[in-house]
Amino acid sequence: MSKLHEDFSIARLNAMGQEYLPGTLGLEMTELAQGTLKSRMPVKKLHFAPNEFLHAASIVALADTTCGYATMAHLPAGAQSFTTIELKSNHLGTVREGSIACHATAQHMGRNTHVWDAVITDEATGRKLALFRCTQMILWPK
Questions:
Q1: Which of 51, 61, 132 is nearest to 91 (CA)?
Q2: What does the pLDDT read at residue 1?
Q3: Plot region of 30 (φ>0 → left; ψ -120 to 50 → alpha; else → beta)
Q4: Is residue 3 part of a domain?
Q5: What pLDDT does 56 receive?
Q6: pLDDT in tens, 21-59
Q7: Are 135 and 85 contacting, i.e. CB atoms less than 8 angstroms apart?
């Protein structure tokens, strides 16, 4: 099983995404521990679809980013990086204001793949909004 790298911190994870999609969407990593990462995203108009409901892609971006950052923080020794090779989401509800939270947990952390599950909730009430699973392929130097 891959271990949490000591050089990864919440500050480092949040700084990495500032000029990319995570920064644009306002994602914030909040708690990192062995086999888990928590995050949040304040809900803004840019997160909505034209039908005025939270866009599914906004939820997927939060979940995939959280699982991806968790993978980076738990890469096996000597691994170069990772890439998402599969993801699935089930959407159960929505919010129109406030913030949403994500709790990603490792289900498998092998040498060549990681599998992460995430639960996305309404931060204020804890109500489940989505369930997410992804598989990450670990990339090794050539």
A1: 132
A2: 63
A3: alpha
A4: no
A5: 96
A6: 999 999 999 999 999 999 999 999 999 999 999 999 999
A7: yes
Give the CATH number of the domain where residue 124 resides.
3.10.129.10
User: Would residue 115 count as lying in a domain?
Assistant: yes
How many structural domains are present in the chain?
Answer: 1
**112 falls within a domain:** yes
Listed residue (45, 42, 49) closest to 102, CA to CA: 42
Range of the domain at 59: 10-139
Q: Is residue 86 part of a domain?
A: yes
* String of DSSP letters for 44-92: -GGGB-TTSSB-HHHHHHHHHHHHHHHHHHTPPTT--EEEEEEEEEEE-
